[in-house]
Amino acid sequence: MSLMETSNILWRQRELLSMLLFKLDAESLILTAGRTRWLGSATYEVELVLEQVQANEVFRAAAFDAVAAEYGLPAAASLADLIAVLDEPWRETFAEHRKALVGLAAEIDAAVRANRELLTSGQRAAQQALALVNGATGMYGPDGNLAAASGGARLIDEAV
Prior knowledge:
Blueprint lengths: L2 H31 L5 H32 L8 H7 L4 H44 L2 E5 L5 E3 L12
Antiparallel strand pairs: 1-2
């Protein structure tokens, strides 16, 4: 496999990771807006892009193994290993790919963490609302279980 083909595969990887970041941001906006109706669709779109990333990763690994063999590197050589043995202009091209991929990976990691926090806080809020509806007071009784509230009127905010 040529360096040009390998570079094209890395460009595709960058495009897919950018698309993944976009889909994660869209998912975050849906969570933040409380529009959980669309959460399933947003998650499905994230999964579709992840499948494309995984498929492209197979091509990238095969390309890297072929190029690594041409340059006397072991199989499964990293991008940094490959950059170290390349001549210009390929060294700079592949270094730019690496820098962009590392940056995208960091952004994706941050987006996943933020979405996880939003999902967790939303789950907690729903559990608390259900506990109140079911009569829990938020206090524990002598047996260690949640104490039930006394019977009476309850005001429920539908926005929760």
